[in-house]
Amino acid sequence: MTHHIKKNKCSYISQKAQDISPSGIRKYFDLLSHMDGAISLGVGEPDFVTPWPMREAGITAIEKGFTMYTSNRGIPELRDGIAKYHHKFYNLNYDPKSEILVTTGSSEALDLAFRAIIDPGDEVIMSDPHYVAYPVCVSLAGGVPVPVPTYEKNNFELMPADIKKKLTRKTKAILLSFPSNPTGAVMPRKLLLEIAKIAVEHDLLVVSDEIYARLTYDMEHTCMAGLPGMRDRTILIGGFSKAFAMTGWRVGFSLANDEITEAMLKVHQYTMMCAPIMGQLAALEALKDSNNQEVEDMLAEYDRRRRVIVKGFKDLGLSCFEPKGAFYAFPNITSTGMTSEEFAEDLLTEEKVAVVPGSVFGKCGQGYVRCCYATSMPEIEEALKRIKKFLARRRRK
Question: CA dihedral in degrees (367, 372, 376, 377; nearest 10)?
Answer without folding.
Answer: 40
